[in-house]
Amino acid sequence: MTSAQDPVRLAILGCGAITRCAHLPVIAAHPQVRLVALVDADEERARALASLHGSKYKVARNHREVLPEVDAVINALPNHLHVPVSMECLRAGVHVLCEKPLAATAAEARVCCELARERGLVLAVGMNRRFEASVDLLSLALTEGLLGQLPEYDWQYGSPYEWNTASGFYFSRSEAGGGVLLDYGVHMLDSLMHWFGPVTDFDYQDDNLGSGIEANVIMALRHSGKFGEVQGQVRLSRTFKLRNTLVVRGGAARAEITLEDPSALVLYRSLGGQEVSMTLRMPGRATAPGLASFHRQLENFVESIKATTKPRVDGWQALAVTELVQRCYERARRLPEPWSEAPTAVAS
Which pTM was predicted? Predict the structure, then answer.
């Protein structure tokens, strides 16, 4: 076990966009982490990334080269490599923070969780959205009853796809495992289940014709948790811009979280017959946009390794999301696209 005084020796596996834009900057700034190595099948990509930070990290093409030298890894490889590589790391006695999704199937996710438990290792999953201040603020607002009874929600997230992917694996069913639901949708499902409890029933529609990946999704969900029965709708798109806002309505007020300001929760209610709003924030939580959640995620991972806390999102929680995603794919209905249907012949 790493002592409370020793820095965690860490390797990053995969040097694509998420590593370049998020993981590496927050690791470089963390005093309790010592980055040992960058690993990528494209060694030149890893070397170029290391040079950008002016540091002489070890560069390797294979994760097996660095496992004896580290306490932990961040698995930021393409989706189809999450399970086999995470399993190898766990078998080597190395803690794992695996980018989402942990796995494409529930069976694979469960095997990872059971191995981590058997070895007494941390298996955290990169649901960085759970570390946004707005997630905690909505939890507090619900617990304090600020929204009133019978909350329901509508969450829309979508825009034309523009992620600067290095490998392009997102567009391969065999490598990605799914489309927008498995990519960004898992963030939303993870937060919704955190707030409202397990999903007891759902209706799922997407535009996958059977051999590719879905770009548009509409879901209706029913939860059962500490706030009773809660219903809501989720809409996702990789082809056009949606509202990009979560709206939760209760009997007394409604709350909104926007993609542009994930550190805030806006409450709307009636006062003297007029609608008024107030914006809630957590002092000290409004750090650099885009990286704040990754910083807190890394901090939670480090503290979990040092046994001072537990992962906010562990493998078992990711398993519950994976089970739901798998059920959605199995029960998928085709999203209506009347513009693409062949016209009905008109009798003469």
Answer: 0.91
Sole residue written with tokens 């990519």? 183
Three-class HEC string of the chain: CCCCCCCEEEEEECCCHHHHHHHHHHHHCCCCEEEEEEECCCHHHHHHHHHHCCCCCEEECCHHHCHHHCCEEEECCCHHHHHHHHHHHHHCCCEEEEECCCCCCHHHHHHHHHHHHHHCCCEEEECHHHHCHHHHHHHHHHHCCCCCCCCEEEEEEECCCCCCCCCCHHHCHHHHCCCHHHHHHHHHHHHHHHHHCCEEEEEEEECCCCCCCCCEEEEEEEEEECCEEEEEEEEEECCCCCCCEEEEECCCCEEEEECCCCCCEEEEEEECCEEEEEEECCCCCCCCCCCHHHHHHHHHHHHHHCCCCCCCCEHHHHHHHHHHHHHHHHCCEECCCHHHCCCCCCCC
CA atoms of 248 and 285, how far apart (whole Å)? 22
- Give per-residue pLDDT as tens, 244-295: 999 999 999 999 999 999 999 999 999 989 999 999 999 877 554 568 999 9
Measure the CA–CA gap between 36 and 247, rounded to whole angstroms: 43
Round to whole Å and give the CA distance between 80 and 224.
32
332 closest CA partner among 206, 215, 209: 206
